[in-house]
Amino acid sequence: MTPTFDHLVKQLKKLPGLGFRSAERIALNVLVEKPENLTNLVEALESARLQVKRCSQCGNLSEEEICDICSDERRDVGLICVVEQVPDLVAIESSGSFKGQYHVLHGKLSPIKGVGPSELNLESLEKRISQGQCFEIVLALGNDIEGEATCHYIVDTIVDEHPLKVTRIGFGLPSGGNILYADQITLKSAMDGRRSYES
User: In this predicted model, what pLDDT tens digit does every residue of 78-109 receive, in sequence order?
Assistant: First the structure.
């Protein structure tokens, strides 16, 4: 095609979930098939860049200083669910299973990738806990080495000084999953997280 078109495809390909073919289809769509959508897309991106920011309390996306979840008086301020990224918050919130507040770390500890405590949103978590309103922290981080290391760090350096309950989300087999195809870590988590059977 042209150098400018190729550059657009290259930039689109950097987005998560888009391969070369998907990026190329999007570029062709906005340039050839539906060029009237291009102006709206550019305006929406620019508007989001200027107006959407992190909530100063939890790190969620917000257009105000405090996000809608943190400012919702119906939420339980004593219950904080710690997640790695905003999509994790969205997934839990979509389930309707949690009525407390959240705290987004924007990553997890990974010395190999150069991510240390100072790169994570830990300072505001410590501030929230030290205010004394929190009675339980729910650690909803991934079931991998980095997720476990981050959980240990939070418990050992932040939570340990405060008298509050710390829980970890359960891991195991997905609904409809088959034991035969589960990996060893998933099976171990499922066994470790077993509970009383209620018929």
Answer: 999 999 999 999 999 998 889 999 999 999 99
- What's at 31, amino acid-wise? L
CA dihedral 36, 40, 46, 48 (to 10 degrees): -150
Spatial contact of 106 and 121, defined as CB atoms under 8 Å apart: yes
Q: Which amino acid is located at 170 in the chain?
A: G
| 119 has pLDDT over 80 | yes
Contact of 98 with 137, CB cutoff 8 Å: no
CA–CA separation, 145 and 149 (whole Å): 6
- 3-51: CATH superfamily: RecR Domain 1 (1.10.8.420)
**Sign of the dihedral through C-alpha 58, 62, 63, 66:** negative
